[in-house]
Amino acid sequence: MKIVFFLFMSISLFSAHLDTFANEMNFHRDYKTALIQAKEENKLLVMVLSADYCPWCRKFENKTLKSKLIKDRLSNEVVTLVVDQKYDVKLFPKKFETKITPRIFFINPSNEESLFDEMGYIKKKEFSKLLDVAYIRLKNLK
Fold first, then answer.
1. Rounded to 5 degrees, what are φ and ψ at 16?
2. pLDDT in tens, 20-44
3. Coil, helix or strand at residue 107
4. Is-contact 50 84, C-beta < 8 A?
5. Cα distance between the two ends of the chain
6. DSSP state letters, 3-65
């Protein structure tokens, strides 16, 4: 019984971590809601897949996504979604499932196809360049 309780608490704590992080960053936690907003605002959808056991995910969140450069760009230029690759598996399309985290998908909201994806920890300047590439690819499709 203690093991079940511990597992439940661990899952709840990570979910709470992602919920807190998403609220702080103004990120979505539900794919469908994020997709609707991206379509309405004609913006790129950026989906970050994270994992509770992943130190590189925490580093990416804290050093890259929370940096002023990236935080400003994400809040103004794209719609961002953050999900746990294991516990939120029913909250995003199966085609984006992965065992590698962090993994970032740059998604065209009109057809829900990934323009490209990147995996692992990405520094803020490199991530900013990836946002530029994704924006250009999306613009060229229109």
1. -65, -40
2. 888 899 999 999 999 999 999 999 9
3. strand
4. yes
5. 55
6. HHHHHHHHHHHHHHHHHHHHHHHT-BS-HHHHHHHHHHHT-EEEEEEE-TT-HHHHHIIIIII
Tens-place pLDDT, residues 73-127: 999 999 999 998 887 777 788 888 888 899 999 999 999 999 999 999 999 999 9
Give me 25's structure tokens. 């960053």
Q: Return the structure tokens found at 2.
A: 């203690």
In whole angstroms, what is the distance from residue 39 CA to residue 112 CA? 10
Residue 46: strand pairing partners = 80, 106
Q: Which option is the CATH number for 2-141: 2.40.160.50, 3.40.50.720, 3.40.30.10, 3.40.225.10?
A: 3.40.30.10
Asked if 30 and 91 touch (Cβ cutoff 8 Å), the reply is yes
Rounded to whole angstroms, how far apart are CA atoms 29 and 37? 13
